[in-house]
């Protein structure tokens, strides 16, 4: 039963509502979904946040997007599953635990040993996981908590190991030496996504390589070849120098040999088109073990790499006299020795981008190491075909095309990590040198590979492993392929593309039908949010200040295909929107209850029903196409302006017998449409209005063609323009008294008279006329002599003021000194003022002429 307006608070209090309603949704099983042959499935798998993480603005936006779509699907009659889960985040969690261990006990993971360290990781993971899950509840996430998955769960681990073994047995996983992103602190390869590139101020060092072939100086008459490098310590691993084959400066240099200082290695000079003749001296040193481009050059030239670094970044035995030094120490020592021996050329200041480990900040070393690799070409082919055929729709479509291009140029994937926390690689080495991939030890005496799998390998299986794969479960048969994935563009390649490849490989189906690539939420100054910059916004603080619904609405309102700087104004706008709806609800509570049929709807009733039906069509279409900003704008404009500002005002002064029913019907419809985006406030308002069924379970409003009434909409639009014209006239003239005038053609007379305060009349009765235009609507008002006199007086004063402004601007612009010396923007502003005030003066003089004899 609905409560009276006197029984409810005058303002909406989100703190008193949100926890209560989330608990009620959970208790009622509103979010639970199971295979139902009578219903069509709808499924989204939550992109698993790191178990170490906390809710950030990207999570808040993406969570709001997914929750909106899932709640909408549920209300549209789908068996809608939003499946939650978390990722074990191998390198992130291991870093946190290692730092905690050192800080609290002064120990390293090697002091504890692998098993004891993993126990610490499990303790931390289980404790930290509750934080992010609790924050998802604060967001209002309508996930089925019965189905919570963790990438280290026993069944999920089995899926990961199964996938690895199958790929290995199919010849798609192999062991090989390649350049990787190596973190010397973690002593592990890391993914491209875990490398942050920062601009640093460094040096470009000229290194001189003396000729070793005894054939005299080079083409420039010098007894050496000079090469510029930002990392002189890597010269210890040089195996060649290369020049561009078309560089005429070095004709005759190709084929000669030079000496690498300090390690006394002789290397040759080769030609390769990769070299940029414009950089430095146009000669490039080739260090295949420490640069990915050099590695490819070395492979083309058939050169053996020389690795000069240990896993911790210190110089190894191949570094000659610099053995045991750190990279930084070796750089200083090498430069000093080069200078001492006359082999240091020009040293220039140089700014360049350097990769740093995202987790610990250590400078990344491109490093040659033996890793496990997935051969990607065979996996990429079906994914390219699926994207080309648009079996997966991507919003915006440009990201579908970009992903195809990436897949067409894909490289093999390094899936091994030299860490302890994660999925241990299921490869076993036998006592006789045998190598077998198996989920279980093949027998006694077999040793398991010490590496773990890249976290992205396990998460690539997420859409189907969470539903029971490798078993053909009922969930997998019913909910897979999933309906949609919403994600940020930064992981389109590292995660989304890999899910497509793995889904097609292991299930024969694409993993999802749609991909929504959402905006990035930037700091208020338009830069990326970063803890180091101190510009991170905590969404939980926003939830507390503005309410979760307001924050969700503001994020969706700003979300489009473009990144956006977060605006507190949008959260404030969302809060004001909730307040507007709350006040509308209070008005409806105090309005007479609908009785019986209530009589025939008036033109205004027909207009709002028709406009609401169009809203249902447009709003639903925008959500279907992932145009969240447009959807929020559309429903905001309807609810605030058309319903609250116009129809409620009409209901106050010109109701029909049907108005109580229509008023309540349309408002509840607005709440149902808004519920997926703003679940807490809408559920509370529906309850206050006496709705017995949870809004979360009610039917999503649909477009009803039978309610379309173009005649009523045209008439009411004309009526609104006419009323607005009169209100503007009153505001301009200050005339508050009763006005008389003709009813404009094609408007609803009763509504026009009630809202404008204009008494219908056919003739001026000897007074003056005021003619107002609003588009194609002409409003004629009849003024008394006193009104005419006051308006003439006001217009003359205003004309005098504006004439002064016009004259002042003209004098300034006629002054040649001002025009020549003042900044161009100042002169431009004066010209704009002159033009604006000249136009205003014409309007005022024309208006005055209407009131003069």
Automatic annotation (TrEMBL):
Domain Methionyl/Valyl/Leucyl/Isoleucyl-tRNA synthetase anticodon-binding residues, every copy: 605-736
GO cellular component: cytosol
Top-level taxonomic group: Bacteria
Domain Aminoacyl-tRNA synthetase class Ia residue range list: 21-438, 445-565
Main enzyme class: ligase
Catalytic activity: tRNA(Val) + L-valine + ATP = L-valyl-tRNA(Val) + AMP + diphosphate
Entry EC number(s): 6.1.1.9
Gene3D superfamilies documented for this protein: HUPs, Isoleucyl-tRNA Synthetase, Domain 1, Valyl-tRNA synthetase, C-terminal domain, Valyl/Leucyl/Isoleucyl-tRNA synthetase, editing domain
GO BP term, example: valyl-tRNA aminoacylation
Entry function: Catalyzes the attachment of valine to tRNA(Val). As ValRS can inadvertently accommodate and process structurally similar amino acids such as threonine, to avoid such errors, it has a 'posttransfer' editing activity that hydrolyzes mischarged Thr-tRNA(Val) in a tRNA-dependent manner.
Protein name stated in the entry: Valine--tRNA ligase
Species, as recorded: Rubrobacter xylanophilus (strain DSM 9941 / JCM 11954 / NBRC 16129 / PRD-1)
Lineage: Bacteria, Bacillati, Actinomycetota, Rubrobacteria, Rubrobacterales
Gene name, Swiss-Prot/TrEMBL: valS
């Amino acid at each position: 039963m609905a409560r009276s307006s006197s029984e409810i608070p005058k303002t909406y209090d989100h703190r008193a509502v949100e926890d209560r309603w989330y608990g009620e949704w959970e208790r009622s099983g509103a979010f639970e979904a199971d295979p139902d042959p009578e219903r069509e499935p709808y499924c989204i798998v939550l992109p698993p946040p790191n178990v170490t993480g906390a809710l950030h603005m990207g999570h808040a936006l993406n969570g709001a997007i997914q929750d909106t779509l899932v709640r909408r699907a549920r209300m549209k009659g789908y068996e809608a599953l939003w499946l939650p889960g978390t990722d074990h985040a191998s390198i992130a969690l291991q870093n946190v635990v290692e730092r905690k261990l050192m800080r609290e006990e002064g120990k390293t993971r090697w002091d504890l040993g692998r098993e004891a360290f993993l126990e610490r990781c499990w303790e931390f993971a289980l404790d930290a996981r509750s934080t992010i899950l609790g924050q998802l509840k604060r967001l209002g996430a309508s996930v089925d908590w019965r189905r919570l998955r963790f990438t280290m769960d026993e069944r999920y681990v089995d899926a990961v190991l199964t996938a690895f073994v199958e790929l290995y047995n199919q010849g798609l996983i192999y062991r090989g030496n390649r350049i990787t992103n190596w973190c010397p602190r973690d002593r592990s390869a890391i993914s491209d996504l875990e490398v942050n590139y920062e601009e640093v101020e460094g040096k470009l060092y000229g290194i001189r390589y003396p000729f070793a072939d005894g054939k005299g100086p080079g083409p420039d008459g010098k007894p050496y070849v000079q090469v510029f490098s930002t990392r002189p310590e890597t010269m210890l691993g040089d195996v060649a120098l290369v020049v561009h084959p078309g560089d005429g400066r070095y004709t005759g240099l190709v084929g000669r040999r030079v000496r690498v200082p300090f390690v006394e290695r002789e290397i040759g000079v080769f030609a390769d088109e990769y070299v940029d003749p414009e950089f430095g001296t146009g000669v490039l040193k080739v260090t295949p073990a420490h640069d990915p481009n050099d590695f490819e050059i070395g492979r083309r030239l058939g050169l053996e790499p020389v690795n000069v670094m240990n896993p911790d970044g210190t110089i190894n035995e191949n570094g000659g006299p610099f053995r045991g030094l750190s990279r930084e120490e070796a750089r200083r020592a090498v430069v000093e020795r080069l200078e001492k021996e006359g082999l240091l050329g020009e040293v220039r200041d140089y700014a360049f981008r350097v990769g740093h480990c995202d987790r610990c900040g250590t400078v990344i070393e491109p490093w040659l190491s033996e890793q496990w690799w997935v051969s990607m070409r065979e996996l990429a082919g079906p994914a390219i075909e699926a994207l080309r055929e648009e079996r997966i729709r991507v919003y915006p479509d440009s990201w579908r095309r970009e992903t195809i291009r990436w897949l067409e140029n894909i490289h093999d994937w390094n899936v091994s990590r030299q860490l302890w926390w994660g999925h241990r690689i299921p490869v076993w080495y036998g006592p006789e040198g045998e190598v077998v991939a198996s989920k279980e030890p093949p027998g006694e005496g077999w040793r398991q590979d010490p590496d773990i799998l890249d976290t992205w390998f396990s998460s690539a299986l997420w859409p189907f492993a969470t539903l029971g794969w490798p078993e053909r479960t009922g969930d997998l048969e019913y909910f897979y392929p999933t309906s949609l994935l919403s994600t940020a563009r930064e992981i389109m390649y590292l995660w989304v593309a890999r899910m497509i490849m793995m889904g097609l490989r292991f299930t024969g189906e694409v993993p999802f039908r749609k991909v929504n690539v959402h905006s990035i939420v930037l700091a208020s100054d338009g830069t990326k949010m970063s803890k180091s910059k101190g510009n991170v916004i905590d969404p939980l603080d926003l939830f507390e200040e503005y309410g979760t619904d307001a924050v969700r609405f503001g994020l969706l309102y700003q979300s489009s295909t473009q990144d956006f700087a977060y605006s507190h104004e949008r959260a404030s706008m969302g809060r004001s929107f909730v307040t507007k709806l709350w006040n509308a609800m209070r008005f409806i509570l105090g309005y007479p209850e609908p009785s019986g049929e209530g009589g025939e709807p008036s033109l205004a009733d027909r207009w709002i029903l028709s406009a609401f039906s169009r809203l249902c069509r447009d709003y639903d279409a925008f959500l279907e196409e992932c145009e969240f900003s447009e959807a929020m704008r559309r429903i905001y404009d309807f609810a605030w302006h058309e319903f609250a500002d116009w129809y409620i005002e009409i209901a106050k002064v010109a109701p029909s017998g049907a108005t109580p029913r229509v008023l309540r019907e349309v408002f509840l419809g607005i709440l149902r449409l808004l519920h997926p985006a703003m679940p807490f406030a809408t559920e509370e308002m529906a309850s206050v209005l006496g709705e017995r069924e949870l809004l979360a379970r009610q039917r999503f409003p649909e477009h009803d063609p039978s309610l379309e009434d173009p005649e009523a909409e045209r008439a009411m639009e004309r009526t609104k323009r006419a009323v607005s014209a009169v209100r503007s006239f009153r505001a301009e003239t200050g005339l508050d008294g009763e006005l008389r005038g003709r009813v404009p053609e094609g408007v609803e007379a009763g509504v026009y008279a009630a809202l404008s305060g204009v008494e219908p009349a056919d003739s001026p009765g000897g007074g003056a006329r005021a003619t107002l235009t609003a588009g194609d609507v002409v409003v004629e008002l009849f003024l008394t002599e006193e009104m005419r006199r006051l308006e003439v007086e006001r217009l003359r004063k205003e004309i005098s003021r504006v004439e002064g402004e016009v004259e002042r601007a003209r004098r300034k612009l006629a002054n040649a000194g001002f025009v020549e010396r003042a900044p161009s923007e100042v002169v431009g502003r004066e010209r704009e003022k002159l033009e604006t005030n000249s136009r205003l003066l014409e309007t005022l003089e024309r208006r005055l002429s209407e009131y003069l004899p």
